[in-house]
Every structure is written in C-alpha cells, then in structure tokens.
Amino acid sequence: IQAAVKQLHKDYGGEEAFLATMGLNEGQKSFVDRQVVANLKADQLIANFSKDLQHPEEDTLLAYYREHSEPYTSESRVRALHIFKSLRQSEDKDQLFKECCKVRERLGSGEDFETIAREFSDKPAEEIDLGFFKRGELMDEFEFVAFSMQVGEVSPVFSSYHGFHLAKVLEIEPPVTTPFEEVREAVLEAWMQEQRTLRIQEYIQALKSKAEIKDIEEEIESEPPKV
C-alpha cells in the first residue's frame, strides 16, 4: 500500500503537490490510504475476473463486430454550396425573403449556383463551397436541409437566426465501416471488456441477493434525541 501511495505522490510531483491538487490537508492523509486500498481491491477484483477469460472463437468475434459496428463506422458527410443573406443587413425581412425566392427561381431555371452566389451572397467567395462536413459541425438548420437532399439538388429558401439560406449538395459520402481485419484487436478488447463487466455485474447481484440491506437514515431518524 505504501508503495502505491508513494507512486501516487510521485505522479503528482510530490506529497504536498498531491494534497494541494486534491484539496486535502495533512490530517486527511488517512483518507488517501483508504482510497488506495479501495482502488487496489477493485483492481484485484477485475484481475480475478479476467484471469481465466478465454478469447472467443473467430465466428463469435466476427458476429460481435457486426452487431457493434458503430465505433468502426465513419459518419456520413456532405459537400455543399451555400448562398446566405444576412437579416442584419436588411431592414425588411419580407422583402429579403422575396429576393431570395427570385434567386431560387433563377437556380431552378438552370443558372450556375456559384456564379449567382458570388453575385448575391453576403458571404465571401471562399465561403460559398463549404467542403465536406458531418453532422454537428454546422448550424442545425443548415445540416437538417443538407442531409435531407440528393446530389445536385437545390434547397428551397430556408431561414435561421442569422438570415436566409440556399444550399446545393455537390457530393455525399455514405458511412464506411472499417473492415474487420483492420480493427480485430480493438473488437477483441471491446468483447473482453464486455465479458469482464458482465462477470462483475453478476458477482454484485449475487452479493446483493445475500446481503441484508438496512436504511441507515430511517434508523437515525427513529433514534430518540440525545439530551
């Protein structure tokens, strides 16, 4: 235990630095000892549940990979063009919306999106092509529209807190799952961790079924006050 405590102090740059970081004083060192003991027992418990855990058959591991492929799958990405008109630069919201609708009509008749964007958008030319993006990287309103469109499609005029928008989707990258062979070790570790967790949960449930659980708060409240 003392060796573990010394290592803990060393990791923090010394005993004083450790106590300061943890918000403890000299009189609370025993708390650290108890915590180290608890951590060592927890580590030992996990080790005991792991020592006889056998690697699964390859078919089992492959099935686990297929059922839990999300961590090994990239998110879908969209590349889009953007026309933006700021409400801050217009005193008449309805008039601005009508202007955007006229631009949408021009786009619907086949005019080039980028050319019109350079003429009409309040954003600089380098921000017309947004490049590839995934969900969570742009404003919600824009992502909702962009991820609901097909390649080559031009959106209707839509609004956000900032103003009015038009979008055109250029490319869509669907999600791609990394082949099993390339992530096999990661899948194996995930499977092993899940098995350890299940064993620990079963152990805890077994202890609970044998334990006598008391409500300490009720006992305290039922005690007569001391005079």
Report on the architecture of this protein.
By secondary structure, the protein is α+β, with helices and mostly antiparallel strands. α1 crosses α2, α3 packs across α8 and α4 crosses α8 (180-210). Strands 2-1-4-3 form a 4-stranded antiparallel beta sheet, sandwiched between helices. It has 9 helices and 4 strands; from the N terminus they run ααααβααβαββαα. It folds into 3 domains: 1-52, no CATH class; 55-73 and 178-196, no CATH class; 74-173, Chitinase A, domain 3 (Roll). The protein has helices at residues 2-11, 15-22, 29-50, 58-67, 93-108, 113-120, 140-146, 180-210, 216-222, and strands at 77-86, 129-133, 158-159, 163-173.
Total of DSSP H or I helical runs spanning 4+ residues: 9
Q: Structural class, please?
A: alpha+beta
Q: Under the CATH scheme, which class of the largest domain?
A: Alpha Beta
The percentage of residues in β strands lies in 5-15%
| Contiguous runs where pLDDT drops below 50 for at least 5 residues | 223-227
Order of helices and strands: HHHHEHHEHEEHH
The best one-word shape is elongated
* Architecture (CATH level 2) name of the largest domain: Roll
Number of strands: 4
The strand order across the widest sheet is 2-1-4-3
Give the N-to-C terminal Cα separation. Answer: 42 Å
Instruction: Please tell me how large the radius of gyration is.
Output: 31 Å
- Total domains: 3
Average predicted confidence as pLDDT: 85
